[in-house]
Amino acid sequence: MSGKPPAGIFRDRKYTFFCSFSVSKYPGGESPQETRGLAPSAGLAKEDHSSYFHPMDLTDEIRACRLCEVRFQTTATAHEPRPVVWFRPAPAGQGPRLLIAGQAPGARVHLSGRPFTDPSGDRLRAWTGLEAAQFYDLSRIAIVPMGFCFPGYDAKGSDLPPPAVCARTWRARVIASLPDLRLTLLVGGAAIRWHLGARDVTATVRAWRDFGPRGIFPLPHPSWRNTGWLKRNPWFGDELLPELRARIRSVMEMP
Ligand code: SF4
């Protein structure tokens, strides 16, 4: 994702207003650890979600968010915020069962407005066994990155991390709006850190069997940068991926 951005990435959208939704709505820094697990047995899934359900409001609020406008202007890409929102809040019994917790849009996704429309997405779909039509079916799958906007590049052309303010501001509400989640794929270190509080991605992914009962699969990021990691860790393809595909099939076939 690093290197020269695709043409048109700079200031491709103009906005004349700032986000009116204050961080103070969710004070206290990172969301509490107990809200991070997403399986039915963990945290929010046990609660009554009726008070969180605002079917249109939440996605519209996120799309209008400009909290990082100044931050993005200081990056090498000097781009405008463009939240890529790909989930649909639903009342209990009608929502998606699978959550793909990604990192943040890359430059291509910033332009397309649809998550994982890049080689990382091709690899993730191959890992999961999901066809594009299933992958983008909002009634069945929610794709919620740690940062909804492309974070930009630094002066050396390297990817910047997703702004922490994004998860701090939105994530608890997003998760609460998806009460039927049964399986969560943590895609990359940022999602693994937030949801599990774990810093060592390899050790966490290697311990994938420990998280199965919680309905969680930790995964490396499917970026081309991790091709070497995949070669060094053949158990990932040989053992984890077949089980991952079976779990996804099982969740997708739930009535
Ligand atoms: S990254 Fe998140 S917090 Fe920042 S502008 Fe985009 S939606 Fe808002």
List the helices and strands and how they pair.
Blueprint (H helix, E strand, L loop, with lengths): L56 H7 L5 H5 L24 E4 L5 H6 L6 H10 L3 H4 L5 E3 L20 H13 L6 E5 L1 H8 L4 H6 L1 H4 L4 E4 L7 H6 L2 H18 L3
Parallel strand pairs: 1-2, 1-3, 3-4
This protein binds iron/sulfur cluster.
Could you describe the 3D structure shown?
Helix content is 34%, strand content 6%. With 255 residues, it is an alpha/beta fold. The chain has one domain: Uracil-DNA glycosylase-like domain (Uracil-DNA Glycosylase, subunit E, 3-Layer(aba) Sandwich), CATH 3.40.470.10. Strands 2-1-3-4 form a four-stranded parallel sheet. Mean pLDDT is 83; it is low at 1-52. Bound molecules: iron/sulfur cluster. Iron/sulfur cluster is lined by residues 62, 65-68, 81, 83, 147-149, 163, 165-166, 169.
Describe what is shown at a glance.
The protein is α/β, with parallel strands linked by helices and 255 residues long.
CATH class: Alpha Beta
Rg (CA only)? 17 Å
**What small-molecule ligands were found?**
iron/sulfur cluster
Number of domains: 1
Question: Tell me about the biggest sheet?
Answer: 4 strands, parallel
Q: What general form does the structure show?
A: globular
Low-confidence stretches: 1-52
Q: What distance separates the N and C termini?
A: 38 Å
Number of helices: 11
Task: Give keywords.
single chain, 255 residues, alpha/beta, Uracil-DNA Glycosylase, subunit E, four-stranded parallel sheet, 6% strand, binds iron/sulfur cluster
